[in-house]
Amino acid sequence: MSVLDEIRASVLATRVIASVDQGMAEQFKLKSNQRCIGMLTSDCDDVTYVALDEATKAAEVEVVYAHSFYAGAAHASGPLSGEIIGILAGPGPADVRAGLQRAREVIENEAAFKAANEDGSLAFFAHLVSSTGSYLSKEGGVPRGQALAYLIAPPLEAMYGMDAALKAADVEVATFFAPPSETNYGGGYLTGTQAACGAACAAFQQAVLDVAGMPIDI
């Protein structure tokens, strides 16, 4: 592996429940037209959050539950648990399957962490969301269709990178993840124009690489 190589994530398990039990529907606060749910687990939480948001743009589905597991995929509760579970709800199986398929495409082929060092042990996520779907819009408190810079790294790298990103582009903090997150990272969502968010991603990436290349620099 080399610096800036992509670290691809994997979907570990999926299931569709065509007609969810009313008791479960109440727990997830499903709407009256949401009779079907689809679940997935993967070994990377932030990539999956982006993927779930993309699912809301590709199909008539809503993210009704998404949560990272503590300590990350390396400490998962089972071989199919990974780092996150996401649940989509929709009117029927066709909608939900389409949403899950789109999420899987993003997880396996599109959004990805990158290596900040030669062995990939220091990884970061600087992903431009050109246009948010319903999920990231809600999580970021921004209008649907807004651009976001989705920035995640280990704790110190994330804080250094967030500051660099904010100074490099006309963006503002939409959501801040103070370290440590459930998976011991940090970062946030920055919002602005698509071009500004792209510049913020580039500045964040460079800041993380600077720390990785020279960690002790007072």
TrEMBL record:
One of its GO terms (molecular function) is structural molecule activity. Residues 1-111, 112-215 form the BMC circularly permuted domain. The keyword Cell wall biogenesis/degradation does not apply. Its main location: other. CDD domains: BMC_EutL_repeat1. Keywords: Bacterial microcompartment. This is Ethanolamine utilization protein EutL.
